[in-house]
Design a protein that fits this description.
The chain is mainly alpha-helical and about 110 residues long. The chain has 3 helices and no strands. Helix content is about 65%, strand content about 0%. The chain is elongated.
Length: about 110
């Protein structure tokens, strides 16, 4: 049972990493659309390391919507609101996955004697 719980915990941690990766990509896309640069900016936030403007935009995207704070509900247009909604949903998914890691840790520890 211990090996199964360890593998399940590693799977949940991998899902958290993937969800956070997607969150950063969405935040980068949000900043691109907000700054109205659209197709002039690279679509992949990792490719932004080559250009100083893109590098600054990528760094701002990393800190755009902190995980422990809510995403504001300002009306900024349909596309930007859709991106913020997707980021908000990823926040909820990350919270639930973090709770699953804690529960798996408690289950793996066993009963208190």
């Amino acid at each position: 049972m211990g090996t199964g719980l360890a593998l399940l915990t590693l799977l949940v941690l991998a899902l958290i990493a993937l969800a956070f990766w997607r969150k950063v990509e969405l935040q980068f896309e949000y900043l691109q659309q907000k700054e109205r640069r659209g197709k002039q900016i690279a679509r992949n936030w990792l490719k932004a390391q080559k250009n100083e403007v893109l590098k600054e935009l990528r760094n701002r995207a990393l800190l755009l919507f902190p995980l422990l704070f809510g995403v504001d509900r300002e009306d900024e247009g349909e596309e930007l609101n859709a991106l913020k909604s997707r980021v908000r949903n990823l926040h909820l998914a990350i919270y639930l996955l973090l709770m699953a890691v804690v529960l798996l840790g408690l289950i793996g520890k066993g009963p208190v004697q």
